[in-house]
Amino acid sequence: MSCPQRTAGPIEEIIKSTRLSLYNHELFCGAQAIRWELEEQNIQPLPSLRTINRILSRNDLTHRRTGHYEPKGTRYPSLPSNLPNLRHQADFVGPRHLRGEADSLRFYSMNVVDLGTGRCGIQPLFNRSGNAVYEALWAIWRRLGMPRHLQVDNEMAFYGSPAHPRGMGPLIRLCLHYGIEPWFIPQSEPWRNGVVEQFNNHYQQKFLDRVAMQTAGQLQEGTLAFEWKHNSRYRYSKLSGKTPLQALAQSRATPLRFPPEGPAPETPLQKPGTGRYHLIRLIRSDCALDVFGERFRVTPELQYEYVVATIDVKEQMLKLFHDQLQVDEFDYKLR
């Protein structure tokens, strides 16, 4: 029997995912904040505040932050990051506001850090849609070069939509077309992107809190100036006192790989025929693997262990790894 007062499944999943994203970024995550986010992403039909509150209550998503939970004694998968552009971490900052002569202008920032050299890339954007993320990363890669691995959290703008978990959103398609493997960190564990999270604080304190900007042009100009200052002048103990650009210059790695000249490719990109993308997940007591809202049953031996779920586009398979050993696989036809 249908229930006319119950919200359609896809919209409910989007509301839950949006609330989780806001919560993980330590932003306001009540019904009004969620509705603003859905409006930014052009979600239709736009649910009412009453509907959003009902969904939050029904799914027990009204609790406040009490600190993160990190299981003890579980081994977390590690990725190498000792060479330039071997691994980038990327994250959003925002929303923030520019105060001009008229109304304030809301903006976000896409922040990227190359773990091998400490170089940063910063690109302002004015919404958090998948296409805006796509274009922001393309602009950053034109300056930093393209990574071999890109590590992000579980923002819908990064993976696509919970309504189409196998659809490969714009970012995944862009990465795979250019030989980049996306990595999605565990849900509710933002500290796994700790390097870029720490840089976000630096960006807030040293730039946003200090530099007065009133227009989009001033924001873009100031952002590029701060990016250059950071990369050419800031010295880090982890780099033995070198600046990020000095660390790059002294690296004996292969030359950096840059995107083709010109603007980002037009969307939508065709679905790639090859490539891999990965999700790191903690298997909890229900022994379920969550892949962008889809759930797969796994062996009880993996309970409270971290696993890597690798989606092989060519083979149309989801392969499950624990301690670098494959322990299971599932048919995974991409749509």
Task: Offer a quick outline of the entry.
The protein contains 9 helices and 11 strands. It is of the alpha/beta class. It has 3 domains: 9-58, no CATH class; 87-249, Nucleotidyltransferase, domain 5 (2-Layer Sandwich), CATH 3.30.420.10; 276-331.
What does this molecule look like?
The longest helix has 18 residues, at 216-233. The chain has three domains: 9-58, no CATH class; 87-249, Nucleotidyltransferase, domain 5, CATH 3.30.420; 276-331. A hairpin with a 2-residue loop joins strand 10 (317-322) and strand 11 (325-331). It has a nine-stranded mixed sheet with strand order 3-2-1-4-5-6-9-10-11, sandwiched between helices. The protein has a two-stranded antiparallel ribbon with strand order 7-8. The protein has nine helices and eleven strands. Helix 2 (31-40) crosses helix 3. It is an alpha/beta fold. The two termini are 29 Å apart.
